[in-house]
Amino acid sequence: MFAPILRAVAQLGDPALLAVLIQTVLLSAACFAGLAGGSVWFVHHLIAHGTWGWLAGAIGGGLALLAALWLFIPIAVVIAGLFMEPVCRAVERRWYPFLPPPGPAGLLSQGWDGVVLGVRVMALSLFGLLLGLFLPGIGQCVGWLITSWALGRGMFAAVAMRRMSRAAALAAYHENRLAVLVQGALLTAGGVMPLLNLLLPIVGPAAMVHLVQGRLDKSESWK
After folding, report:
1. Is the pLDDT of residue 218 over 60?
2. Is 223 a member of any domain?
């Protein structure tokens, strides 16, 4: 069950992925810096025009950074959608060279699917963030599970639909819900950790390729 994400991490040094990895890391880092900087500036701007003290400002800035870390996951999902095809092809080339070429997927279509999935994950992430604020402890756990479900299901379906219909992809998801949730939980945990979250646009699709192929090939021992 952990093999898909372990295989994805093990391939990060593959020359076929290095160029994509550099692009996604730079773009992810820029987005995170902008998101974090903008959140902190917004909080301090409100404080500067209010009556809050320096302690409230420090707490507000810390909460803004935490929110930026949490909301970075939807941004990473959009980036993953933009680079999904070259990542999937690199993984298939190394691990599954016997596979025929997937159906054609245009860059615009992939980008739009990534945006839709990113917006969905963002909405659920915001819901999870609010749960964590109003129900400390249990709310954070529930929020993490919600984001894990949305992230895993969305990425699995996007990768699966490269080689099967939407109906077949959803059926494959239902047959592998636990494994998909595990990958989503691991990706979500990494997505809120600085530096590790920069790898999400590569590791996410790569892990789902292994999971989808495990569904197609019943002989895979890690399926």
Report:
1. no
2. no
What is the Cα–Cα distance from 164 to 150, expressed in whole angstroms?
20
Calculate helix-pair angle for 15-48, 84-95, nearest 10 degrees.
150
Rounded CA separation 159/219 (Å): 20
State the Cα–Cα distance between residues 167 and 173, nearest whole angstrom. Answer: 10
Please enumerate in sequence order all residues whose Cβ is within 8 A of that of 191, keeping only pairs 6 or more positions apart, or say none.
Answer: 72, 73, 76, 151, 197, 200
- Please calculate the CA angle 25-105-16 and round it to the nearest 5 degrees: 40
Can you give the pLDDT at residue 72? 78
The residue among 126, 18, 39, 28 whose CA lies nearest residue 78 is 28
Number of domains in the chain: 1
pLDDT above 90: residue 140: no
What is the span of the domain harbouring residue 34? 3-216
**124 vs 127: CA distance, rounded Å:** 5
222 assigned to some structural domain: no
**Alpha-carbon span 135 to 212, nearest angstrom:** 36
Pick the most confident of 42-46, 162-166, 186-190, 215-219: 186-190
Q: Does 162 reside within a domain? A: yes
Structure tokens at 16: 């076929």
pTM value? 0.79
